[in-house]
Amino acid sequence: MEFHVQLTGRGDLAARIYRQLLDAILDGRLRSGERLPPTRELAERLDVSRNTVAVAYDRLTAEGFLVARVGAGTFVGAQALPPTRPRAAPVGDVAPRALWADVSAPAATVAPDHDFRVGIPDVRLFPLRTWRRLVTRELHGPALRTAGYDDAAGHAGLRAAIARHLGVSRSVNAAPADVLITHGAQQALDLVARVLIEPGGCVAVEEPGYPPARQLFSSLGARVIGVPVDADGLVVDALPADARLVHVTPSHQFPLGTAMSLARRTALLCWAERTGAAIIEDDYDSEYRFGGRPLEPLQSLDRCGRVVYIGTFSKTLLPKLRLGFLIAPASLQPALRAAKRLSDLHGDPVTQGAMAGLIDEGLLGRHIRRATRVYAARREAVLAGLREHLDGLLSPVPSAAGLHLCARLRPGVDVDLPRVVARAAEAGVGVESLADHCAATPPQEGLVLGYGAIDEDGVSEGLRRLAACFGR
Predict the structure, then answer these.
(1) 333-359, pLDDT tens digit by residue?
(2) Backbone angles phi, psi at 244, to 5 degrees
(3) Euclidean distance between the first and the last CA atom of the chain, given in angstroms as a whole number
(4) What residues have CB less than 8 Å from 262, skipping those under 6 apart?
(5) CA dihedral of 45, 47, 48, 53, whole degrees rounded to 10
(6) The dihedral sign for the CA sequence 430, 431, 433, 434
(7) Model pTM?
(8) Which tens digits make up the pLDDT trace of 454-466?
(9) d(Cα 144, Cα 141) in Å, to the nearest integer?
(10) Which residue, among 187, 297, 318, 190, has the nearest Cα to 250 in the 3D structure?
(11) How big is the CA angle at 64 (ends 59 and 68), to the nearest 5 degrees?
(12) Residue 286 in 3-state DSSP?
């Protein structure tokens, strides 16, 4: 046998011998019919027990890679194997459904020097030391000492903590039993759509709006219709009569940033009651408010059980935690729990338990207050920078919450915004075009500027570079 087994590193010896022999067979270094050394000989060569080698041989024999012949020895099996082991999955000719040709995951990117990308909180504000303590406590608790699967609705303590937190901070009407924990807001959208939408059913979304929601509904076979948004929010009179579900962001419209007026909220609820439709209220980042009194959520105004309230901790803490939630009318709760169980059985009890502790100890509220002060200063710096460097080109859309703002292209300004965004990226400035959030044509012209990931001191320079990309 020309192939040599080498034992380096740590780990189970039999498993390592098995792995090296299997790799050699699949790579073609050990060919069909080739004789392996006796177990005693290989054991002496490797300075391990004969039983260790025998365990590796027995496993490969049971899997059909080796054949033991009495009185002759152990040989590589005669089954057809590729001459060389492929280092990637086969190309294959199985095609996905046609709609997936237009849906792709965003490519991983390096953070730009001046990062105005949307929806990214400042990782440096995350209370890491506190989080480490809470996770350690959960790891030493009962969460990992019981077998079996947990409640699909999520950690009981976290559901109770969220119900209390939202009752105080957002006036949401919810008991712990009304809360279902999800892997972020995106899974919450998926569950609601799966429960409510028939193939070909109509879903209304804001235009401009949140592309991942639009793509999700389309992937489930829905007919997605964009509904215009004005200064008061979604234009209720433009809703399609056959819409079964409406997705809105009333507290901080994505991406424009406007808030839905009380009159428009009331009109939307009346429309839903009249047509029998359901409303998804996506309250993705309204924890951060910079002026005025908090607006009443649709959920707290709903008297007929038409609103499913969705939230996430991705903006208040970190997207990597993958923690979100939904609060649904009682009529939908059994189906949503069943859909959650079919989707992933349940979430991570350690992470959910740590989040419950963060809320119960008052630390989430403290973090939000601290982060709000930081983001408020950055937001003011963005507004000041727009006035200083881009006043004749962009006009900010009024808003008072969230981690981004939108600036429309001023009337009469003739500029190729996609080219501006591309040039900005080359200059180390990350910014998004409003057109990227539009499905209608022609798209609305403007830029969306996040201030979660950029230092206050870097805002002015970043906007100065952005202004230069307009040709100034």
Answers:
(1) 999 999 999 999 999 999 999 999 999
(2) -90, -25
(3) 72
(4) 295, 296
(5) -10
(6) positive
(7) 0.82
(8) 999 999 999 999 9
(9) 7
(10) 297
(11) 75
(12) coil
